Amino acid sequence: MHPEVVEDEPGSCPKCGMDLVAREAGGDSDAGEHDENRGHEHHEHHHDHKHESEGHDHHHAHHNDHGQSHERHHGHHQNHKHAHDHEQHQGDDDHEHAHCHEHEDHQGQDHGHQQEPAQEPSGTEYICPMHPEVVRSEPGRCPKCGMDLEPHKPGEDESVKEDVSEHDHEHHHDHSGHDHDGHDHSDHDHDHDHDHDHDHDSSGFMSMVEVTKDLPRSADGLAMDWLEVPFGPCFPGLPGGLKLTLTLDGDGVTEGQATSLVAMNTSSEEVAVETFIERLAAAMPLAPVSYRLLACRAIEQAAGLEPDPAVERGRAAALERERIASHLGWLAQLGRQLSFVWLTRRAAALQLETQRADREQLVALRPALQSLIARLEHTPLLIARLKGIGALPHGSQDLRGTVARASGRTEDARQADAMYRELGFEMRAESAGDAWARLRQRHVEIMTSLDLVEVAGDPELPKLRAIDNPSGTGEATVETPRGRATLRLTQERGQVVSVELDSACSQHIGLVADLVEGQELGDALVAVGSLDLSPWEVTS
After folding, report:
1. DSSP tag of 510
2. Where are the beta strands (DSSP E) in 199-328?
3. Which residue in 464, 465, 485, 460 sits closest to 475, CA to CA?
4. Are 444 and 332 in contact (CB under 8 A)?
5. What is the CA radius of gyration of the chain?
6. Kindly report the CA angle at 474 between 498 and 404, in degrees rounded to 5?
């Protein structure tokens, strides 16, 4: 991993800890470094041979003489090899002659020094482009990353040179008098060992602790960049007009928020009661019948009218027909989100048939609806995808409609309606509170609504009854397909002058933050979809 680390004996790399491996000298551009090691090996081989075969104590004593240079010690061995009868050295001239003789026998090897290449202009230094603290006086490679050093004119980066100068000064003191195996290397170039010590003590690389110290922490303790990603207002599986913003930590969601881009503004100008009814119905494309009925009842109560059972029966049938169609639309949306093409096609087709059907036509759709529900509840992949996903935190407040009933809460405005009691309405509820429970709850409500239509008769679109007193304050509550909605209004001389609307979706949209936190992205999207939010029913 670090070819610049070269030792003359087996051991471990001081940088990465890996075992050193044997390599022949002269194999690459770093041959000069290996030559020095090979010289050491050659020297030790001759020393052992002579010591064992001849037993010359004076040679062994000379080997331990720290006053002799490393080159002269090699020369002594070479000279001693060719003349066994020499019992003492003949001065510095014999040593120099022996040193030259050794160089001839080794074919010009220079004991660890490479031939210098063509010189750059005087004063040029060489710096690593990746590690500017590595500065050399001659070309070569960076001991950290292996890149070629690049020429650098003095004065271009004084701060780097000062740092390197200080480091070289400290290194000089650290290596003064340093020896290897009893040999004085004071005359040798220590570039290689200098880099080795520097890397071992301080690698120069910024640690991951420093890089990630200011980043937020994931649930598993890892620090990663968090991304804020918007989904919508046009995203498969979510209703149009709903903007879902999720903060992602990898594929996990750390926080989320849902906002409506088509929220209804209830602080409108004065408007005639008939116009108000039409506007409110048009503003709620996923439940126009429910909000038309809500407006009619509030205005009629403000005028002091009592409910008419015959009219209320037809209105109840229309409301339940819309509930069936709305739940089928949610199933089609779920199919798009999960890529269940068959579910999308089948649910959408049944939704279209339901929206304009009379009592007889709706009763005829019962087998098809039962077949679809049975297939869904026996689809293992669907069960695995929804079960346990999107469970609401314990103690969630103001749950309404299907979301509340799927959590085991008996919350349904129809229980207080005299007409529904007359029709024999009985509320049924799931209890798990997850996405699978909401699916099953909608199945139950589809069949319950079909039973109510069969008893009530043909659906009648809600229309405003004749009123004598066009002034007053009225309030009405309707169990829409998504839950209880309450409208309070004030009218004066046939004009609606103030409106206050409280809808289920205005409450449920606030559940998103707790629902998605800590979930994987796919699960978070399924959980939000299971709430069946209508951005048009959110008030601002």
Report:
1. G
2. 227-231, 242-249, 252-260, 271-272
3. 485
4. no
5. 44
6. 95
Alpha-carbon dihedral angle through residues 229, 233, 238, 242, given to the nearest 10 degrees: 100
pLDDT above 70: residue 149? yes
Cβ–Cβ contacts within 10 Å for residue 225, how many? 10
- The pLDDT score that the predictor gives to residue 212 is 56
Please, are residues 306 and 464 in contact by the beta-carbon 8 Å criterion?
no
The average pLDDT across 401-416 equals 95
**Residue 40 amino acid letter:** H
Q: Angle formed by the axes of helices 341-355 and 309-338, to 10°?
A: 160
Residues 537/506, Cβ–Cβ less than 8 Å = yes
SS3 417: coil
The mean pLDDT value of the chain amounts to 77
Instruction: Give how far Cα 192 sits from Cα of 134, 458, 483, Å.
Output: 12, 96, 78
pLDDT band at 306 (very low <50, low <70, confident <90, very high): very high
258-280 tens-digit pLDDT = 999 999 887 767 899 999 999 99
> What's the confidence (pLDDT) of residue 6?
84
Beta bridge partners of 244: 231, 258
pLDDT at 127: 87
Per-residue tokens: 275: 């116009």
Using CB atoms within 10 Å of the CB of residue 202, give its burial: 0 to 12 exposed, 13 to 18 middle, 19+ buried.
exposed
User: Nearest 10 degrees: CA dihedral of 411, 412, 418, 420?
Assistant: -140
Q: Which helix (H) or strand (E) holds 293?
A: helix 288-302
pLDDT confidence bin for 206, thresholds 50/70/90: low
Sequence-distant (≥ 6) Cβ neighbours of residue 393 within 8 angstroms: 514
489: exposed, middle or buried (Cβ count in 10 Å: 0-12, 13-18, 19+): buried
Which tokens sit at 165?
């100068």
Length of the chain: 540
**Position 8, amino acid:** D
How far is the C-alpha of 210 from the C-alpha of 304, rounded, in Å?
A: 73
pLDDT at 264: 86
- The residues, any chain, with a CB within 8 Å of residue 254's CB and separated by 6 or more, are 216, 218, 226, 247, 248, 517, 518
For 106, the 3-state DSSP assignment is: coil
CA distance linking residue 27 with residue 34, whole number of Å? 9
Query: Each residue of 384-407: pLDDT tens digit?
Result: 999 999 998 877 888 999 999 999
The arithmetic mean of pLDDT across residues 377-384, rounded, is: 95
Q: Which of 112-116, 330-334, 383-387 has the lowest mean pLDDT?
A: 112-116
In sequence order, the 6+-apart residues with CB closer than 8 A to the CB of 462 are 289, 292, 293, 296, 315, 318
CB 250 within 8 A of CB 224: yes
Q: Who contacts 53 (Cβ-Cβ below 8 Å, separation ≥6)?
A: none
Q: What is the pLDDT of residue 540?
A: 76
Eight-class DSSP state of 84: T
